[in-house]
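Record minuted for completeness.

…
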Amino acid sequence: MKPLLVLALFAAQLVAAHAAPADDVAAAGKKLAGQPNYTWKSTVQVPESAQFKPGPSEGKTEADGFTVVTMTTFGDNQLEIVKKGDKAALTDMDGNFKLASELEKEEGPGRFMATIAKGLRRPTDDIAILVAGTKELKQDGDAYAGDLNEETLKKQFRLGEPKNPKGSVKFWLKDGAITKFQVKVEAKMEFNGNEFDASRTTTTEISAVGTTKVTVPESAKKLLM
């Protein structure tokens, strides 16, 4: 075999080995996205000094259908969001469903919550963004991990402009599907002229794949149909 051909084959093997982790995670994300439904739970850890400490959120979604998410916001207040396609409905301060497009025209917490509702993504949507935006995925024990590029990092901060953002992502796979992923970000941000630490660690666990039942409140369904 000619030396140049040997070198070419060796280089191709190196490229394939290098790309394998990203390919594995991308395939696992597509496998989950291809399921008829699934459930997830996300928890967020923030610095002790943070004024806003978000509680856990739980969601259920069905392919080409509804996504229902319940999250704990300020104090022990519960916010329920229902999405279908690009439309979102959420509960107001009185617990009544309203369209996000309606609430975002108001002042106060309703407008803030409407922004959260409109920007809400399903885990499979986040996984696709994170895999594409990771500089290099490497196997880390029983998981795959890598640093996020600058563009993807900025997408993790939906409000404001982060200063010197840094971050990484970690994926856990089982039987070729993603069962958990974790995003760690570090950044400083400004609000009303004051700088604060916007760092956080968000861990999302996937469960009940293929067996999740999505129950949509009728009042929300009427708004979104």
User: Anything to note?
Assistant: Residues 4-12, 14-19 have pLDDT under 50 and may be disordered. The chain is about 30% helix and 35% strand.
